[in-house]
Amino acid sequence: MATAMSKTSETPAADHDPAVTEIYLQIIRMIERLHRRHLDMLRYELDRLGVDGISAAQALMMTKIKGQTNQCTGSR
Q1: What is the spatial distance between Cα 65 and Cα 29, in angstroms, rounded to a whole number?
Q2: Are 39 and 56 in contact (CB under 8 A)?
Q3: Which pTM was predicted?
């Protein structure tokens, strides 16, 4: 196991293709924009419903917690 880790750590960063790196960075930026837009949409819906006590990020976390609870109990 130690030999597999040492082989991957020996690969210098200069061997990476710059085009692949640029594509990776573009994907990361797109994911960040998508996340922000999702939060904006949640904020809009919370405002529309008159909910002022929680932020969009808190609402997103609550939906994730609810989803995990449903998976544990088997209900939907």
Answers
A1: 26
A2: yes
A3: 0.61
pLDDT for the residue 16 = 79
Q: Angle formed by the axes of helices 56-73 and 18-49, to 10°?
A: 90
Cβ atoms of residues 56 and 35 within 8 Å: no
Output the DSSP codes for the chain. -HHHHHHHHHS-GGGS-HHHHHHHHHHHHHHHHHHHHHHHHHHHHHHHHT--SS-HHHHHHHHHHHHHHHHHHT--
Angle at 29 between CA 24 and CA 33, to 5 degrees: 150
pLDDT in tens, 10-59: 544 556 788 999 999 999 999 999 999 999 999 999 999 999 999 999 99
Residue 59's CB is within 10 A of a number of other CB atoms, namely 16
